[in-house]
């Protein structure tokens, strides 16, 4: 039986992120409904108001007309149709947000229609549980607060913890060698040797040049970091290769990429150990699956940059469960509106792990009554 796509609607949302001292952040949710009343949901991590409004416009005006009346289970054909349609303005940027949210919603919808988990539809589940990486923002002007957060995450059972950037762009991790060393020393003392630690340098802000990155990573080898995330500007692929050759500390990058084509350049440069994916940005679950295949062929690992809504968390879990090369995902350790207020069944880590749910689709239920409270006007 063909399940016809009858309605596609985008919901631009704005909220205060408690992990970022109340900073304004945005996501775009997409709701797709079939003629027989089954609904799927997806998300784009559109981040700022202007991009979020533009994402809604592309969902409604560029891509919905292509899909309406089509078979909801023919997800990959719809993905290719959207990518072809975007040939002139490109599948990166705002178009990638729109395609990502629609694609995620289609996989959720297909899973519900067929009574299958999304990971099964993508290729098959290899894992039942995924380690959650408790991820916070450094306060580079308040070491005591930062250490208290790491101590709390250890008490909560996290096995992998991460921090990066800074509460303001005027004071970020990576810019002051002495302060960075103090933070790393004190954090490692608080969490002990048994917890795995990741740190995130604002490479997109060009905090380091290659020589500085090489010196810092060699100096940090004693902290036994799981990886250092985005130590250089993401476009400096040759510098990533030279950095990776100069240190034993693994290098992670990729959260700024948009499509399998751009990830192909990252993988071929030889400068990355852990490839970061975000299903709300890199052309959805279909795009992620294509990149995972490339990561497997290259013998690397991948992690999921999932620091937005519970839909993104769900999608990331399915992508990680798809492959033995999947590592971990960012997970907000405290309550957050997009993880709790707009979802009826928030994710809860236990002993540092998140379990895939048996429910069909993504396994998350959106509380549609709550959406108006966060609507971006």
Automatic annotation (TrEMBL):
SMART domains: MR_MLE. Keywords: Lyase. One of its GO terms (molecular function) is lyase activity. The keyword Membrane does not apply. SUPFAM superfamilies: Enolase C-terminal domain-like (SSF51604), Enolase N-terminal domain-like (SSF54826). Residues 147-250 form the Mandelate racemase/muconate lactonizing enzyme C-terminal domain. Gene3D superfamilies: Enolase-like C-terminal domain, Enolase-like, N-terminal domain. This is Mandelate racemase/muconate lactonizing protein.
